[in-house]
Each structure stands twice: as structure tokens, then as C-alpha cells.
């Protein structure tokens, strides 16, 4: 069931985002162009504990602000409107600059955000259920098929 929800969520992301992320091909070596590596994303699905939705969103907003200050691309947030039992889906771009992540972490720590086990216990008070996975994308079918070794 969760994979159906995830597929539905990913399909509902919209074509604008997908086509904007079409990877460029690398310079030709010989007669065959090598496609650029496809981006990877981490996808997290949350069901929030009763009464914790606003607190969870405020924590995300503070994290977004720290990420922006550090020059990181923000996560994409999807908010449940109708249907299945999830509340929020976050799509996070993988492979962003580690130095910028350190800056964002330092900003959050200076603001009093918990770290280590304290973060674990704080976030778990807000979450009833959580799952995550890694996916290729955002991309397009054309870009993905272009990465095949045999055609």
C-alpha cells in the first residue's frame, strides 16, 4: 500500500518540475554521447501524532530558513489533502554540498534546535509513523531510458 501511495505522490508532483530537471548530456566521446548522471532524491512519508502538525511544520519552516541561509536547495513539501492516511511527504535532493549542510546545522543549533538523541526524542514525539526511501529523480522517462547501456 505504501508503494502505491508513494507512486501516486510522485506522479502528482507535476510535469513542470519533472521537465525542468531534464539532465543535459555530457560532451560526446567518440560517436556516442554519455548521459549525465540522474539526480537522486530521498522521499519521506510522515503520519503525524495527533495535535503535532503545527509544531512539525514550524520545525520544518525553521529548517527551510536555515537551509536558505546556507545556500541549500529547499526540500519539496507535499501536504495531504484527501485520500490515504499520510500527512506530509518531503522530497529531498541528495548530494548537496556538505559544507553548506554544516552551516545550516550550526544555524539550527544556535537557535536551540536539539541534536543527537535529543533530536530523536523530540521528533519522535511528533511522528506517529514515518517511512523513507531513495529514488532516482526528478527526471523524465526519456532521460532515464537514455542511461541504458543496451538499447
What does this structure look like?
The protein has 151 residues and is α+β, with helices and mostly antiparallel strands. The chain contains six helices and six strands, in the order ααβββαββααβα. The chain has one domain: Alpha-Beta Plaits. The strands form two sheets. It has a four-stranded antiparallel beta sheet. Helix 3 crosses helix 4. The protein starts with a helix and ends in a 6-residue tail after the last helix. The N terminus is likely disordered.
Specify the overall morphology: globular
Task: Give the end-to-end Cα distance, rounded to a whole number of Å.
Answer: 33 Å
Tell me the β content: 25-35%
CATH first level: which class?
A: Alpha Beta
> Number of domains in the coordinates?
1
List the total number of helices. 6
Structural class: alpha+beta
Helix content: 40-55%
The assigned CATH architecture is 2-Layer Sandwich
Biggest sheet features:
4 strands, antiparallel
User: Using DSSP, what is the number of strands?
Assistant: 6
State mean pLDDT (0 to 100 scale): 83
Series of H and E elements: HHEEEHEEHHEH
Task: Work out the radius of gyration.
Answer: 18 Å
As an assembly, this protein is single chain
Query: Which stretches are low in confidence, meaning pLDDT under 50 for 5 or more residues running?
Result: 1-27
Instruction: Please list the strands of the largest sheet in the order they lie side by side.
Output: 4-5-3-6
What would the CATH topology be? Alpha-Beta Plaits
Amino acid at each position: 500500500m505504501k508503494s502505491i501511495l508513494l507512486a501516486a505522490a510522485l506522479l502528482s508532483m507535476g510535469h513542470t518540475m519533472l521537465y525542468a530537471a531534464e539532465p543535459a548530456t555530457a560532451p560526446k566521446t567518440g560517436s556516442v554521447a554519455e548521459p549525465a548522471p540522474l539526480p537522486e532524491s530521498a522521499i519521506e512519508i510522515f503520519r503525524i501524532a495527533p495535535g503535532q502538525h503545527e509544531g512539525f511544520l514550524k520545525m520544518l519552516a525553521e529548517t527551510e530558513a536555515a537551509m536558505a541561509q546556507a545556500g541549500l536547495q529547499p526540500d519539496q513539501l507535499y501536504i495531504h489533502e484527501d485520500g490515504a492516511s499520510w500527512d506530509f511527504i518531503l522530497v529531498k535532493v541528495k548530494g548537496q554540498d556538505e559544507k553548506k549542510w554544516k552551516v545550516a546545522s550550526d544555524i539550527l543549533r544556535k537557535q536551540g534546535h536539539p541534536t543527537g538523541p535529543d533530536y530523536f526524542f523530540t521528533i519522535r514525539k511528533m511522528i506517529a509513523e514515518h517511512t523513507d526511501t531513495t529514488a532516482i529523480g526528478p527526471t523524465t522517462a526519456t532521460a532515464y531510458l537514455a542511461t541504458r547501456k543496451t538499447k
